[in-house]
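Technical annex B. To support the medicinal chemistry partners, we prepared a structural model of the target in complex with 5'-O-[(L-methionyl)-sulphamoyl]adenosine, based solely on the information shown next.
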Amino acid sequence: MKYTYITTPIYYASGTPHLGHAYSTILADCYNRYYKLRGYRSRLTTGTDEYGLKIERAAQKNNCEPQKFVDDLAEKFIETWGKLGIAYDDFIRTTEPRHRQVAQEIWKRMEENGDIYLGHYEGLYCVDCEQYYPESELLEGKLCPIHNRTVDFMREETYFFRMSKYYDRLLGHIEQHPEFIYPETRRNEVLGFLKHNPLQDLSISRTSFRWGIQVPGNESHIMYVWIDALTNYISNLGGFDSELFNQYWGNTIHIIGKDILKFHAIYWPCILMSAGVSLPKSLIVHGWWTISSKKISKSDPATKIDPTMLAEDITPDALKYYLLKELTVGRDGDLDYQNLISSINSGLANNLGNLVNRTIQMIFKYFDGRIEVQGIGTIDQLDIEIREQAFLTRQIVEKSMNENSPSAAINAIMIFSNHLNAYLEKTAPWQLAKQDDHKKRMAEIFLHIVEAIRWITQLGSPFFPSISRGITSQMNFDEVLQWPEDFSLRSINVNKAHVLFDRITKEKEDELIAKWQNPKL
Ligand code: MSP
């Protein structure tokens, strides 16, 4: 059995989920579904990052006990992923005992390896990043380079992790495993950073606040939240000795945004080496969604788009389709509402939806919903082309996913759907229906179209899973979505057509855009 383990970052339980979080999760869900389709046992996990000064302060600001505060927010994330139809296998919260136990165990492993020592640290600290910055990395006015906000001066007794010890091994690993960091630009960025900045030891405990996991053996120290948070990828599997860990860990793919690259490409591998654990297979690093060129983030209310509102207005699948199709993994993309609506109208309503709908209606009209043909019928050049295009599309989907390009995979599927609409026009079964002896040819045309739609349904299931399920039930395909192998359908038995995706009218479009631009309307 082949295994894959796909993870999302665990989201800070300091604010409600926004579209940027949704994108990380939708992308991971798409990979998970794709691997399942390819016959892997694939596991998707997500969760919430609930400790640290940032969360403690956010709770205080809301006059709330930290635990109650994170309980409510974790609930919000769970609810959001439910509404978006994310099929995750486990949701970890870092305040759960099962997580604490693994975080403390990784600490002990690092300590036993002689990699942790006590010292002092002082410097400029960004609470949002939960990390110290050397002055050279700060923006003018001593602002955090990620959050553009003032950093705090902090001095504390702290445990250090001898990260410097792993410099050569880390560099060697990244150089020898080009698949470790995708895309290449991010890999080069990490290599460039490492070559210019030999690794320093890392401060990994705090004494200035209490909201965190205690350091084993010294309760006055709290574990640095990134050590705790990164360990979720192992506690999510049940710890180092679990069966799931043995099965899945070797094939781990972490989906992350570019802002958390350093933690995953530098800190995490060093922690794992210190703990005597093999490294994940790859990091897939995506870019940011912006709105009017500003990063979508919880600290900027003008950009904070609620993904559940969009999903309710246009359906979760339409949102997935748009986000996966319009953003090349690794690049940034600007969310444009007009473009969103025209993309889903043309792809899901006019192209795919229309194809399925008119096909089913004609099969009812001319064949009462059922076709059965014994042996091989009259095949012509157009049929051969459709068959060839099915195989070509499958090949492009496979290649695109190997190259981490869900966007190219979706495009190939939509092009195929377009070809099928053109095939219908060219073969024009409604014309043949006017002549007496063409029933057999008509049957053959519909067998080709329905078989091709079955391929689209299966190949498209990682990108628009509910639409795929909808087509499956309308066309009575095999319930289990599998990688298509044979193009050889000989019988059809369809149910009554219903609209797969409602086209958004101009009037509705104006109404939606006005609402999205001013969510209080
Ligand atoms: N808690 C840490 C991750 C710990 S993982 C061991 C964290 N949380 S976060 O809530 O701030 O962000 C989580 C993810 O959301 C990151 O992958 C980040 O890149 C992604 N996004 C946040 N805003 C985004 C956009 N505007 N666009 C796309 N994704 C972005 O970091």
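Notes passed to the chemistry partners:
Residues 9-12, 20-21, 23-24, 49, 229-230, 232, 256-257, 259-260, 288-289, 295-297 surround 5'-O-[(L-methionyl)-sulphamoyl]adenosine (CB under 6 Å).
Residues 371 and 443 are 7 Å apart (CA to CA).
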